[in-house]
Amino acid sequence: RTNKRGKNELSYGAPFHTQVAVLLRRTWRTIWREQILTTMRLTLHVCIAILIGLLYWQIGDDAHAIYNNASMLFFNHIFILYAAMMPTFLTFNLERKVLVREHLNRWYSLKAYYLAKTLADIPFQIFFPTVYLIPVYLMTNQPLCIERFFML
């Protein structure tokens, strides 16, 4: 369909907010049904936290270990970024055929799909890094200061 200016305009069966709400419900249902992925993510975060905590054991208060502290911070950032992206990479390929079919049928826009997937993953993107960082922070003997923990 074209608008008043002659440009092509996509129309969908429902308003954007309804598309997002339906996709969000479906995404939450999928996450709930496939608990093994969530359990694996949690287990991965805990195991890597213990390994990093042991690798950088008690370096937080040692001024001579500044390079070790910097490398620990760098590893934390890389791990959290990698751990956040991997579930998307793993599950997107499984959902791709359904996504293409439903989008080409104009059931929902790609923006609504992306927003719903992002919103559904936000609680996990807060919870899992927190579960990871608490033991790492304590095991590496970083100064017990809430501001420094939140900066980490």
Automatic annotation (TrEMBL):
ABC-2 type transporter transmembrane domain ranges (all copies): 18-151
Major localization class: membrane
Pfam families: ABC2_membrane
Membrane-topology annotation of the record: Multi-pass membrane protein
Domain of life of the source: Eukaryota
Transmembrane segments: 42-59, 71-92, 113-134
Keyword line: Membrane, Transmembrane, Transmembrane helix, Transport
GO CC, any one term: plasma membrane
Subcellular location, record wording: Membrane
GO molecular function: ABC-type transporter activity
PANTHER family: ABC TRANSPORTER EXPRESSED IN TRACHEA, ISOFORM A, ABC TRANSPORTER G FAMILY MEMBER 28
Protein name in the entry: ABC protein, subfamily ABCG
Organism, scientific name: Daphnia magna
